[in-house]
Amino acid sequence: MSSSSVVGSVDDLTVRFPRRRRLQDWRPEPFVAVDRAAMVLRAGEITGLVGESGSGKSTLARALLKLVPFDGRAQVCGFDVAGLADPAPLEYRRAVQAVFQDPLQALNSRHRVLDLVGEPLDIHTECDAESRVDRVVATLESVGLDNSFLDRTTRELSGGQRQRVAIARAIVIEPSLLILDEALSALDVTTAASVARLLHGLLRPDSAMLFIGHDLAMVRQLCDRVYVMRQGRIVESGTADQVCGDPQHEYTRLLVGSIPTLPRTAADR
Amino acid sequence: MVKLSWGVLVLVGALALLGPWITPYDPTAGSVADALASPGPEHWLGTDYLGRDTLSRLIDGARVSTIAGFEATAVAVVLGGGLGMVIGLVGGWTDRIVMRIVEGISSIPAVVLAIAIIAALGSGLTRSMLAVGIAFAMGMARLARGLTMAERERLYVDGARVVGASRLRLLRVHIAPNIAAPMGVEATLVFAHAVTIEAALSFLGLGTQPPAASWGVMLSSAQRTIREAPFQSIPPGLALVLTVLALNIVGDALVRRRRGVGLDNPTGYLEPIGIGSGEGKAESNPLCTDPAVLLQARAVAVRYGSMVAVDGVDVTVKAGEVVALVGESGSGKTSLAMSLAGLLTPPAACSAEVIRLGGGAPLDLVDADPGVRAQWRGRVGVVFQEPSAALNPLQTVGRQLREVIEAQRRLSARHRDRANTMNPRVISEEIVDLLTAVGLRDPEDVARLRPGQISGGMAQRVMIALALAKSPTLLIADEPTTALDVTVQAEIIELLKRLCREREFGVLFVTHDLGVAGELADRVVVMFRGEVVESGPIDQVVLHPSHPYTAALVAAVPRNEPGRAILAPPATAAEARVLDMVEDQEPVS
């Protein structure tokens, strides 16, 4: 059970970015964005990765998506990610999908919703035009959008609707790992809560999600397991209730202390 | 001017298409007996030295110029655009090597390069235009490479790569359509150059070959007889000048339209609008005269065309009080805040019964003249969401603060002691005081830095210092912590609380996050679809929300507690309905 339910495991993953050469520093030390990170992604779970801007959490996600080169070991869905060719093979692309923070930028604003959600089908499957439309409509329905959206472009949608389209595009080919890179951060509070509800409902027992965010309270409510990242290093990990309810590391305590709180009733306390 | 230029181009195009049917004579044949006739009823523009009708040759020349332009432009766009996009996407060594070659070729003037290529290929219209096209392909390649490299960094390209799009698909489906517009503008300029160069090459005998008519060939033949018939050089010369001028004007207009700048407003700056008193509503209640009331606004309405963004909203802020204005994007909260700051710009229209600033001499914003509006903006400090976008990236922090302080001094007529207050050293001390007040360590050092050299949290502190420099009666903060990290957000909230206590101004704090409002605010005003649905002390609103939207908002704030309250469906049907409305209602930007 234990090994079969692991969708991805990361060990000693390091991402270095070269710095600019200068006259006084001809061979600068590279900037280490992710420093020997280790992580396990289990099936049927949402794993949270929390950190502030510049902590390297998005870079770690981009490494798993084969968008930046890295050192170390990463096994995802049976693929040795470090050893994959560039561009990554289609089988890997099919297994790992992502949703980014700003759907207006992450989705080509010239394409209609039908083509945005249909593009992964064009690339990975050989379905005819009719079944393509059917599958797109079915996927849109599963993210709470009806078929009146098919012919719109992202500029004609609200922020929440755009993010739902981005999610539909990611899940239409049923990936085993879905990486959510700050997918709720640009949304209004109420919209973020409904999209969080949607994401939790989309989790299948044989697939995993990696939720990257900076809001520790949201991560606690949505995720099963949490990793806290700071300056490229993972400083604390554990179940969501452990990490957020009883933080051990000083930095995690600072993060927990910064969560804005609402007034409560005496009964809540 | 632009319309006239379009007219010239349409005319040239029409002549090129209809030429064979409308020329009065055969453009390539004439009798020597009619040679060098002056313009007259027989030959409107006279004849050349072989007796051919100049008007007919001019019309035929339009066809040659158009074909020449299209040929050269097509070669340049296909060859240069294709090459540039490929090396822009692939990058690395391929890019370096190809770019050095392209730069080498570009260093040769286009005409000289074209003549060299013609020497190898032989003369003739199509061949010479192929040569011109190759010469201009180099510039196109550089443009396409630059645009592709910029697009490659965009998130949607990463998104397409993650989905598994191949490089060819990236170029064809994603990048090419997005760089087509600037490439098209460049193409109009290539077209104009090609028309001139065609004329030059034909004049030299390398392009169009006689007896075929081309404006360049016509100029060449007119030059032979310039003493006998000086008029003959004018029609082809004028045609050439007008066509090229029109192409350049049109190309320029396209560039300008892409940048979103009109001729009437070359910088894109919009002057803030005034606020009218609306549809003559009678003042229902006398104004509150409590000196602690800093801001009183009644029945504020903001419209964008027919869309009502804010629909008759009342707001009051007292001294030392933080009022949070909470709502979704599209609820009208930012429009309301900007109208109270006197910073709404067209196409917005705003009316209100009363907007009055207390605390000292009262100011009225409704029906105010520009002088009063300037005074208003002098007494209301504003902090925006993106400090890095609101600060001038080219000026040091200290210089920007100095500017605000000096403007403030100039504005307040009460300062009789000008020499002293405008003293640079006094102002420098004030800058240090302000930066210290917003909690920046080493204020002297920070003052010397540019906004790009400081972190987002520091930049937001500088923004607050800029607002404080006006010694404001009221501070309006529009989502000042939304772009910041949570730990920095907590610090900025603390800072605002402290400043509000110390300086006793009022704060109107705009946010979508009730959690942030809960940390900071004394009172909350909840906006929903342009209206205030609920307002009151923060505890009362959060613990006993009366409107379903407020209840949904409270439920949506994630709490650091066990359990998964946020994943629970809306508690009531009314809440669910409101949530659906919110997601449909959000603005389309």
Shape of chain A: globular
What structural class do helix, strand and pairing data of chain B support?
alpha/beta
CATH architecture of the domain at 6-21 and 28-109 and 176-257 in chain A: 3-Layer(aba) Sandwich
Biggest sheet features of chain B: 6 strands, mixed
CATH topology of the largest domain in chain B: Rossmann fold
C-alpha Rg of chain A (nearest Å) = 20 Å
What do the pLDDT scores of chain B average to? 84
CA-CA gap between termini of chain B: 32 Å
Largest sheet of chain A: 6 strands, mixed
Order of helices and strands of chain A: EEEHEEHEHHHHEHEHEEHH
Query: Order of strands side by side in the largest beta sheet of chain A?
Result: 6-7-8-3-9-10
| Count of helical regions of chain A | 10
Low-pLDDT ranges of chain A: none
Question: Which sequence of strands runs across the widest sheet of chain B?
Answer: 7-8-9-3-10-11
Radius of gyration of chain B: 34 Å
Descriptive notes:
Chain A is of the alpha/beta class. Chain A has a domain of 180 residues: Rossmann fold (3-Layer(aba) Sandwich), CATH 3.40.50.300. Helix content of chain A is 34%, strand content 24%. Chain A has ten helices and ten strands. In chain A, helix 7 links the parallel strand 7 and strand 8. In chain A, helix 4 runs parallel beside helix 6. The longest helix of chain A is centred in the middle third of the chain and has 14 residues. Chain A is globular. Helices cover 55% and strands 11% of the residues of chain B. Chain B has a six-stranded mixed sheet with strand order 7-8-9-3-10-11, with helices on both faces. In chain B, strands 1, 2, 4, 5 and 6 form a five-stranded antiparallel sheet that branches. Chain B starts with a helix and ends with a helix. Chain B has two domains: 214 residues, MetI-like fold; 293 residues, P-loop containing nucleotide triphosphate hydrolases (Rossmann fold, 3-Layer(aba) Sandwich), CATH 3.40.50. Chain B is an alpha/beta fold. The model of chain B has no long low-confidence stretch (mean pLDDT 84). In chain B, helix 1 crosses helix 2, helix 1 packs across helix 9 and helix 2 runs parallel beside helix 5. Chain B is elongated and about 100 Å long. The chains are: A alpha/beta (269), B alpha/beta (589). At the A-B interface, helix 2, strand 6, helix 4, helix 6 and helix 7 of A face helix 6, helix 7, helix 18, helix 19 and helix 20 of B.
